[in-house]
Design brief:
Number of helices: 20
Helix content: 40-55%
Radius of gyration: 30 Å
Shape: globular
Number of strands: 24
Length: about 725
Amino acid sequence: MHRFMIFPLPRLNGLLMTVWLMLAALLFTPMAHGQTGGAFGQRGEPNIQASLIAETERPASGSTVTLAILMKPKPGWHGYWENPGDAGVGMQVDWAFPEGGQRPVMGPFRYPVPERLLIAGLMNHVYEHDHAVLVDITLPQGLAAGTRVPIRGQARWLACTDVVCVPEQGEIATTLTIGDGTVTAENRALFDRFRAALPRPLDQEAHYTVEGERLSIAVPYPAAAPVGQPWFFAATPDRVRYAEPQQARRAGDWLVIETALADGADAQQPIEGVLAVTPDVALQITAVPGAVPTGGDPVETASVGGTANEPAAIPGLTTVLLILGGAFLGGLILNIMPCVFPILSLKAISLAKAGGDQRQARREALAYSGGVLLTCLALGALMLAIRAGGTQIGWAFQLQDPRVIALLLILMVAITLNLAGTFEVGVLSMGQGKAGQGGQSGAFWTGVLAAFVATPCTGPFMGAAMGAALVLPWPLALTVFAGLGLGLASPFIAIAWIPALRRLMPRPGPWMTTFRRIMAVPMGLTALALLWLLSRQLGTGGVLLGLLLAVAAGGLLWLLGRRQRAGSGMNWVAGGVALVLLCAVALAAPPLVRSDTVGSASEGLLGEPFSETALATLRREGKPVFLYFTADWCLTCKVNEANAIDTQATRDAFKANGVAVMVGDWTNADPAISRFLEANGRSGVPLYLYYAPGAAAPEVLPQVLTTGMLTTLGAG
């Protein structure tokens, strides 16, 4: 919340605040800091705590390390962005390195997206909460392992409340030791959160025009991408009137911001700044003089006295219905996507068992649908909750965790052996009894498994709907997830409630035993795929762990089957202990067995690894770019790669047409990819984009590719 000072003479108050801040700024000069202390020196605990940490404390010689300057204001206090606005002073750091030898090279500061604070008519660009300013440091080449590299700087910043400002200073320091560049999991997660708060560099130049005292900035932004209440923060000083209202409109693939020009502003030089588009998307832009499109649809901007990152506006009824329709159709189409093929075996057996019994079929349809809906809602709610905590994840996040994969491997081995007849459990077998509780329980858990395993791969209609769910208020977002589940369950519901469809199902009979054995094959192949996925996520250690879990689960279930065939009952205590031990190993072991030989994110895939910086470079060079996002657990992705992307015809065509290829591998959680997917209106893979030279926005290709689609890219 942005606050206002209440004075009877606001203009006089603004003048007094300006004078006070100018006096404070004088204290930032080197002369004022020749000594610590004095009449204006800092005494006692600072109002904004500053510290310095490194992403890795053991960087390799010659490598570039990211440092974070952590700033923690006390409640009611704030610090300033690089361009503080109408008043204030940004942070300054004088770095000091030991004399002699090669010295590290410091890069520029990278600030998170600021907030706006209006006091007495003066607009301030501030941080009222904990934040991190990132800076890259490049170490000299040839440093021996174990060499200590001290990093120290004298930092100066201005800490303010609504009524008082205090110049503060302090030493920020850390020590690096030359090593292998290992980054701990804790530091990786911490710096991922820091980077998530940074604006994203825009790969194309924005344009601006000046008419009288009005400045119009046109920013390339896809027409289908979400917009909240945008606000432009000018990093270039003295170009705009910071406290003036801003207007926004959408003109095709352009987002146009209009505001007041500052007095005496240069109307020919580039303007740099940050455009906050939604609470989660901010773009770092450079605008040069050029044409700005006219017309378009108005967009509500953030109010002058409001926050910079207001929630996105709630869409109209028609838009919501279209999103829900996309989620339903996406879930329906999932039933014929490769992702769901293994689960079809369970559904097929359940349908065959029901035969022509209408009551049984309907009870099981409701149970199955309940399992699907509950799982989709639970996964959706969990994803929204994690994102609300600041972690960048997307749909299918559960399959990026090797512990989940290990548990699924145990489950798939159990289902495979059950279908093969190694042992019998009423809930899993789904082949005994009529309309008893066991059948309904089996249908429910089949629905849970279908939703849990099938939803990670997005199909047609589903990707856009899931992306939209990320920017909707949470009740509407959960409705979208429910629509997805309803679409996934709808074939089962239709067969249960439409007699003509149900009559097409074969009657139960001896053939079901043979059919059940055959259906064990796709489930066994799924278990092998999960073992392979563990190898991709954990390396050799993942293979050994997966084999251990599979053999242990298989051996225990084989012993259970022997007891059943001998007429002995199941020892529930021993079985429960064994199950708990297996699950405990699956949950605890993955972090311990991760191998150093885990392949890189894009190993074995066509194209160079994705990065927004590399993409922006290729686009500035005018090269056509084919960018695709994949994951090892996405069967749709793998089918497209085998049949269309990684073929000789496609390779030859890309080479002949000069098409650069980039790949983003989302097998393991990658916040940078999650943010990019979200910026393009998606929350999962696959996503295929083609950037034509000079195009304002990429072309989104279908989620089922053919070689013919790709070989024409870049031609002509």
